[in-house]
Here is the input.
Amino acid sequence: MFSAFRAQVRAAVPLSATDAPVAVATTSGQGMLALTAAPGVAEVHFGAVEEILSRAGRVERISEGLMDQFTAVAGCGPAYVYQFIEALADGGVMTGLPRREAQIYAAQTVLGAAAMVLESGEHPGALKDAVCSPGGSTIAGVAALERRAFRSAAIEAVLAAYEKNVSLGKG
Here is the structure.
């Protein structure tokens, strides 16, 4: 799919006028892409590239100085989310769910939660609090994640990816 995008981008504007987007190009059209232009690029060319890339998902125009940060979150993030989905599914299997169903339930749960964050505009912590009943199973699970430093591990993954991006850019 990305090779088709590349051909369309080349037809719209020389690649030297834009920096390549960084993100996962998805067949679902739900990817997160970033685009930055070289100085002096005509808006018509920049817009044409943006339009082509939008078929793969959401496109944000960002400054070149934020590309390493973007990549650490959105470019590397799918791998982190895949691990989380896998872990949720494994937990489901441990409780007795068949593998196929556990994976579907986990993936759909992540998809629904992500949609809620984007659609509501609420802070993820507020949404988490809204589904945690006092003394309930959800807050018990959240506490287990906190005991295992779940949030810290995710933050450290982004920081490690960012540092690697920066070091790769110096070469």
User: Anything to note?
Assistant: The beta strands are 18-19, 31-37, 57-61.
